[in-house]
Amino acid sequence: NKMALKEQILEDLKTAMKAKDKDRLQVLRSLKAKLQEKEIAERKDGEATLTEDQAIAVLMKAAKQRKESITQFEEGNREDLAEKEKAELVIIEEYLPKMLTEDEVREVVSKKIADLGAEGPQDMGKVMGPIMGMLKGKADGGLVSKVVKEELSN
Asked: Which of 16, 35, 89, 141 could make an S-S bridge to 25, C-beta 3.0–4.6 Å?
């Protein structure tokens, strides 16, 4: 029985505090804060607990922000800052579901295109919706869209 994502992060936060692991502590604190913000935003009457999907979405957004920062820092020749973001990204990715490789995405996409009878680039919208639904939290959106475009152009 796998612990819920948020519980896992809170547990690991305690461990990191005891271990005085500053970098990990900083990342986990920031993730905890983001999860709490999301909970408050979702709160209807009284208690709000995030679904596992919502928690994963929060972490994926955090990972995406790190990736964007890495790109910006590398373009600005700030390797030191890029390295710090990369280290944080590694920690965040430990909590995310294993992402699909490009080949695995391509397999899902080409099967779906066949199922939907999609013909060419004009069917991109028709294909993207169902695919993103299937691959949500399992594959990077940019990668999915690139693969769909390629598959529809063939």
From this structure: 16
